[in-house]
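Before relying on records like the one below, remember that each one covers exactly one chain. Contacts with other chains, cofactors or solvent are not represented anywhere in the record.
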Amino acid sequence: MWHNNNRSGENSNRGKRRAGLLFFVNTLLLSSSLSSTDAGAYEVQVTKPTAPATAPGGNYSHLFNSRYQGNSILTNARNLGYTGTITLGNPPQSFQVVFDTGSDMIVITSDKCKGHCDDMPHFTCTSCTNTPYSYNITYGDGTWGAGPIVADTVSIGGLVIQDQQILDVTVSALDLSSYGPGIAGLVGLMPSSPVLNAVPPLQNIYKSKLLDMNVFSVYLTPSLTHAEGGTFLFGGIDDTKYSGSLNYVPVSARLSTSKGMWYIDADGAFAGNTSVPGYTVSPWLFDTGTSFIAVPTAFAQAFHQNVPGAVYSAEDQIYIVPCSGKTTFTLSFNGIKYDVPYKDYVTSAGGGSTECVSLVMPLGNYEIFILGDPFLRQVYTVYDFTEGSSRIGIAHVNVSDPSLGNEGLSGNPIPGGNTITPLSPHGSPSAGSRVTVGILSAIVTLLATTLAMSV
């Protein structure tokens, strides 16, 4: 009896082990089949043109003009933002466009365009479908574009978005010539749009669940004298490009007109180590389409009072400053300070002048704050567009290797490091650590052997 009872117990235990191992195999196979559909990270290299700071005749204030109109920040096309390549339609048509976190839509010049569009590449709407909507976008320098909203396939760094809305500009006074030849439009990277029925790319990406992480990360080379460019990484965070930890700040709810815009609250503002007089917690727009720091008139005055040698030019509505100095422009988010060195917010007046211009620029009657690339080059930024909990992560940029190196879509390591770490919503590694079929086969074979031995 003892022998028979023990045998029955062994059979029972083996059955339990077998069931447990089979459950593990099935779970592993299921998990692998799910992870095989996970998205990776998609990277776009961007470049920034170099342009003179003055216009003919010596007046240069209009080059830095920006306006707040309606529910959107509408930035002067001459702000010289960062441009990269996207493809539209099927068969795909490639275009150089501005990557702009301060606007919402994809805007492209149509082959049916009339007006100021002869010197820009044209999009031929061969595979697009019509929508019942149209759009008119106006920029601060008076240029504008209008046309129907169409839907087509868009690819950004290999990330394919189906049925994406595109403003197909058919009537235009839009001038993108300052970016250089071949610029056809822009990609708006706001998480949502204040415009009724408009669906920006990020909103489509989120609803279509195209990424493991609903983020895009922006790296702009810290020194324009070293390399004029950067990368936009969709679906991942490149931890070699920053030092320390990411400081996450939720999108601000302080402005009723800022729906869908990348505003976050700065709790402090400083000229060097001196607090800017009169400043209180305010929302700042992170705008890759702007090449200066735009501030209310009172803030500009208070800041420049602490910059030795700064003089206001009433004619040009800007501040003339010495070409060398030590006073930093500094903001704090969650109590952590981020500096813009003097040389990065001061530029030559050009035209043979020995004077320099401060890129901390007053916006006249507009009580808004905009952070363009003088600030954005100092930080690595992660834009989290998770619906209902949008936020920006900020970290000091890694200046030990400021070059772009050999980055691209290959995913291979490069000198200086290029470890892209796309994460699942639960924080576990995704595309970079999937279980391969070969490993699965080996595990299944091992488990099958174990099961056979236990019989």
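Residues 2-35 form the longest helix (34 residues).
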